[in-house]
Specification:
Length: about 170
């Protein structure tokens, strides 16, 4: 099964990073993937074991995921309950490790299994490309000066490109 892993250092305390990452009411402010999120089963926008979330990506893919692990402020994990025809299984986990009082390392891990061996390679390449769109290969961005003149990958969106140019990056 293809596994996609990525990590990022964020200059905020672990508790705050975890809270923001699991607060679905602000998810659109920072996550480039979802077009629509909806908590199912009458739940609010708080992560909880058994809580189900409908997700539609900006590419039109839809799936329902269920939280299988919620350990604030250390970890959260989901598994796919239903999804696109080409995915047999999907699961994701986010782990939050304090580097110091004001810095957190977040590790993302996604596991996919397609319904056809023909699609495994393609789906893995797409997943890796998605993560590479929101990262750079020089290291973490810890202060505004770190982004000045930095070549980085962004989503192919005029909004993302304009935002990072305004910060001084070279998308």
């Amino acid at each position: 099964m293809p596994i996609v892993e990525e990590s990022i250092e964020i200059c905020l305390p672990r508790d705050e990073v975890y809270r923001i990452s699991q607060d679905y009411s602000v998810r659109y402010d920072w996550d480039p993937f979802p077009d629509r999120l909806q908590m199912l089963d009458g739940g609010d926008y708080t992560a909880r074991i058994g809580g189900k979330v409908f997700i539609r990506s900006k590419l039109g893919m839809t799936m329902v995921v269920e939280f299988v692990q919620v350990i604030p402020p250390k970890a959260a994990a989901v598994k796919m309950v239903s999804g696109p025809w080409y995915l047999a299984k999907f699961a994701g986990s986010w782990n939050f490790d304090s580097i110091d009082a004001q810095k957190t390392n977040v590790r993302f891990r996604y596991v996919l299994k397609t319904r056809s061996l023909v699609f495994n390679s393609l789906i893995e390449k797409i997943a890796i490309r998605y993560f590479r769109h929101v990262t750079n290969n020089k290291g973490p961005i810890l202060k505004p000066a770190d982004i000045q003149g930095l070549r980085l990958r962004t989503l192919p969106s005029s909004v993302h490109v304009a935002f990072f140019k305004k910060l001084g990056a070279i998308p």
